[in-house]
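Can anyone check this?
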Amino acid sequence: MTNTTARARNPLAFLDAEIDDLKARGLYRRLRVVESEQRSRCVIDGREVITLSSNNYLGLNTHPRLRQAAIDAVERYGAGSGAVRTIAGTMSLHEQLEAKLAEFKHVEATLTFQSGFTCNTGVIPVLAPEGATIVSDALNHASIIDGIRLTKAERRIFPHADIDALRSTLRDVRAADAARTILVITDGVFSMDGDIARLPEIVEAAEEAEAIVYVDDAHGSGVLGRNGRGSVDHFDLSGRVQVQVGTLSKAIGVLGGYVAGPASLRTVLEHSARPFLFSTSHPPAVAAACLAAIEVLETEPELIERLWDNARYFKAGLARLGFDIGQSETPITPVIVGAGALAHRFSDRLFEEGVFAMGIGFPTVPEDKSRLRTIVTAEHTAEELDLCLAAFERIGRELALI
């Protein structure tokens, strides 16, 4: 082969082949583009739709107090923070937000990260060094899985929500090494199915094994517990869960993640958590808006009440129509249809009818459990939810799903 021929070959040709494969299996998707405020009704790809695919549970991303806080922060501090936290990127707003979060979560300290994903990939390796054992629920979020992959710890996976299997695993690990560090990790709310972790039983099992409990509460923050304090507060387990991870990107309505726990954890993470050490800190507007969001949670609990009223109403409507909605216990309600191509077809037809509900297939969920993941918010009206249910019924019958 000549050098000219070698140079003419495309070394990235395998990407085109992968795209062709996605198209052949009906799984190719392009990104939907939002062209307006993201509220219960918004403009996506030029069409006004009722959205059931936003994590904006409480509508805080457009709340007047958050808007004004962001504007004021830009005017006072500028657009960016200028550096990583450990150099010149720790601003007074970051410190205020973390102090407020610690008070809100009833812990000694919190530390914010650029996202919930980077929080898990930064914290888990610190808590589970070589020689430790991580015991993780089989349906934990991808960021937890990636965080575990970054460690040299032993990994044990227990079947989803199987407390007997968890107890058995913990007994085996502890019997093999009485001094070993054990980290038990679970989502607080499982993002694809909407079920809540069996935290009281998980905590009891962990306490028996003298293990650390680590709860990722991305979809519980702002949704469960008093004033949205999360799943740990929901079960009245404050003080018994050593590490809580939350997000500022979903119900809080802005961007970022945080870890809440003892002050010693914060101090060690400041010195060793790689995403914290090597990423520029949040812009002032983000930190200020997050701070305002916590204040809204404390003073406007009616938003959470409205969210749950809407969730119960919509969930009951889907069940009445005969859809498979799994074991959901939260505003996340899957509509399980089977094959990924069918889920995407269902989603596309709903979009044509003015409802945005994203289809989700493998590898996010097993191929035979592909679904539409719906999330209602506090902003949806009963009229909007009825319109969505009517569209689900029409398209569901058209596709022989009900």
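Reply from J.R.: I decoded it. Residues 126 and 272 are 7 Å apart (CA to CA).
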